[in-house]
């Protein structure tokens, strides 16, 4: 492959290198961490469709309560499971036949919501522990540890015989998600040449979407395999974990991590291998300088509280909050429920999940192609307009035509399905991948792992909040829930327009001088003598500076 110069507009130093096979291989294997996460998101939707799994673990706890009838409504696919219910749980089957539930409230079940979202509490806590392992042992061992957590969690959930085993398995899966989401984006940002950093980093999100799609296809294929179809879906989650576990043996640690841990010569050697050239002096010196600065910081979390650390920290946390308040996880977790609510049968709901999963994958590929060409902000701003329009249309149609009982007319149901797909497309080429990319590339080395742990934990916290609250919000707000998320999208658009700097093409160790100190708003967080003359990169708001 021909050599390229890793360079940017202005005075950013040129780092020579090729886009090598080693870089691509490392990126693909590391991105299997995203495949693990995505498959789990897709399988989470399984619990809302496959009666059998939910009945198996929750029947004893709920059979004597009114929740049993409501619970049956959450699982969907009831007709396909009637033989099983008649044979093993006849009383439940009779109660189900008599149940009449509000379209907006029939899925409101606290135990179901807690079961789905418990993984994210474990991931939130694990992300802080992963920050320590990333710094002390490296990005690669942290990814390997994530895969081991995931393998253990898959084993417990697949072979669970009671709800306790299932919950413990979910907690282990959460630890795997927390460790992977902490290590993989950092690994990709530090490994990639600046010219293609956005595309390689988004491979993490791309693999998440592929994992969701695969899970949806598997769910659809095994949905009628009685009585253990759900175990097949859960067990397949071990495949990406094994790929990451064994594949990581064949990849390099990042030069930054090696040099940071005093393995200087090994770091230079790896840098030469991944860049494909011998002349890596400029990039090597830049990394060494960043590591020397970072080595003076013994309390990175304390450093994050300082004034000059606030810009990247605020951006990192806000990006995670906004990513969740687009409403995307609500739609992806409960897409089968949404399609059933507007009148599709259980099989159609699963098939529709496959369709939205495919849209998700293809749209993320669009982001891979465009992010290093048009920049981060352009994708975010366009998507805000797209998602705002679709949320309002979905909310308007449901508010107008979907009553508390019954279904939508066929034409309106089709509009909802199309708008959901358009919404997913907008998210998948913007706030989805960039919510991980931007925080992973904006922190200086001395606070990078600590800062990114705040980003990951914020993501998990607000994923938990949305997953835990969505069904209750749907019950209380009804169609208004889509206008709730639409209002947040307006706030997101204004934030991206005025406060989010462009980071396209800037080396990760040059962000402070060439992004934060040049931004019209964020430069005020640095001392006057720290602010350099503008011109190193294209200014984000020339009319405001």
UniProtKB/TrEMBL annotation:
Main location: membrane
Protein localization: Membrane
Gene3D superfamilies noted in UniProt: MFS general substrate transporter like domains (1.20.1250.20)
Stretches of the chain forming a coiled coil according to its record: none
GO molecular function: monosaccharide transmembrane transporter activity; symporter activity
Topology of the protein relative to the lipid bilayer: Multi-pass membrane protein
Name of protein: Major facilitator superfamily (MFS) profile domain-containing protein
Organismal lineage: Eukaryota, Viridiplantae, Streptophyta, Embryophyta, Tracheophyta
